[in-house]
Amino acid sequence: xxxxxxxxxxxxxxxxxxxxxxxxxxxxxxxxxxxxxxxxxxxxxxxxxxxxxxxxxxxxxxxxxxxxxxxxxxxxxxxxxxxxxxxxxxxxxxxxxxxxxxxxxxxxxxxxxxxxxxxxxxxxxxxxxxx
Amino acid sequence: xxxxxxxxxxxxxxxxxxxxxxxxxxxxxxxxxxxxxxxxxxxxxxxxxxxxxxxxxxxxxxxxxxxxxxxxxxxxxxxxxxxxxxxxxxxxxxxxxxxxxxxxxxxxxxxxxxxxxxxxxxxxxxxxxxx
DNA sequence: GATGGTGCTTCCATCTACTGGAAGGTCAAG
DNA sequence: CTTGACCTTCCAGTAGATGGAAGCACCATC
Lengths: 131, 131
Prior knowledge:
Two copies of one chain form a homodimer. By secondary structure, the first copy, chain A, is mostly helical. In chain A, 65% of the residues lie in helices and 3% in strands. The longest helix of chain A has 35 residues, at 76-110. The termini of chain A are far apart. Chains A and B meet through helix 3, helix 4, helix 5 and helix 6 of A and helix 3, helix 4, helix 5 and helix 6 of B. Chain A binds a DNA duplex through helix 2. Chains A, B: It is found in: Cytoplasm. Chains A, B: One of its GO terms (biological process) is positive regulation of DNA-templated transcription. Chains A, B: GO terms for molecular function: copper ion binding; DNA binding; DNA-binding transcription factor activity. Chains A, B: Residues 1-68 form the HTH merR-type domain.
């Protein structure tokens, strides 16, 4: 299977698939004309990667998760630790974003949004943090 | 005032302040020895930038917000539009993260986390999306 | 066999917002 | 005069792709 077909089937852009090969996440074969040739196992890995990336795992996490996936003697604790760490990061990010959202939504709701210059959003941004 | 003092006062790393000058967000003066010399207006701008960045505005948004801030004949509608657009992006990101979090938390809670290889997290990642 | 269109290849640059580090000049204290 | 804390510039690297150029490969048609 050529990269175009794989891209359609996996939902990943061809560019991304080449990139994943570049960084050693997959190693498709090559046919005589130099084209990449993807096996079912490559497709499978790409699906795994796509799913893990969709859950927000970093590329390095994905690499480790794939290694664990292929290791029949893995301990599920190792997988769980990666996932739990990631969950913590997501929670931290969520808390940060929620804080931003609250402040910003408040400011937006206070701004008239007309053609006059007075603006509570700018006023807030210009606030000296010491006061 | 030298960059070290400004860094302490603004809470921004000196590196970041130099970077902000590099991309034209501030233009401190220079003293005879080549050191940057910051005026109150520079400090004020850096505080504005720090606050805007803390609210998640992109550098380009910050640039536009600063321009509006300095434009006495601005319309608050222009500020509000930037902030509302940003709020929408935050909401989109929040929704995405919450979805990730829900899926991930569920998987983590289902994983025994022991020394056996069976792992619902890996099982989920390996799921063929067509089924 | 020439041509055209699509698909594949590599390589290099670009994006965001910094951050790290090297090499070297400056300044105040002792 | 030396030491140490500052300051300077410049270059490289981070994450995870993405855009684009230049150039083969392949297939269908005329």
